[in-house]
Amino acid sequence: MRGGVGSWSGEESSNRELLGIIEAATITKEDDSWKYGNGGVYTVSSHYLYLYAKFLPPTSLTTASIESIRQIWRSWAPSKVVVFSWQALLDRLPSKANLLYRGVIRGEAEA
């Protein structure tokens, strides 16, 4: 059953790749630190901000909108409420108008 159902060749390849990465890692006696914010202390928030700055395009949000977003993410509200609020503030709710605009659905005239 070489390469068929129940084949381990894909996993073996992944394991070899992972072992190569691990073997290439340098181990030191230095303390671990997070170099992307908060004085070397890792937080989910600092990681989010790092990824946001690195991979998302510049925004035209106002300072007030940015502060509102910060307040939303600091909220103790349930995560579903936080995400909904964030999407609403950025006009990213999957409303019919937004879905039409993005080409996710077609207008009734085109259907």
TrEMBL record:
Keywords: Kinase, Serine/threonine-protein kinase, Transferase. One of its GO terms (molecular function) is protein serine/threonine kinase activity. The keyword Transferase applies. This is Serine/threonine protein kinase ATM. It comes from Trifolium medium.
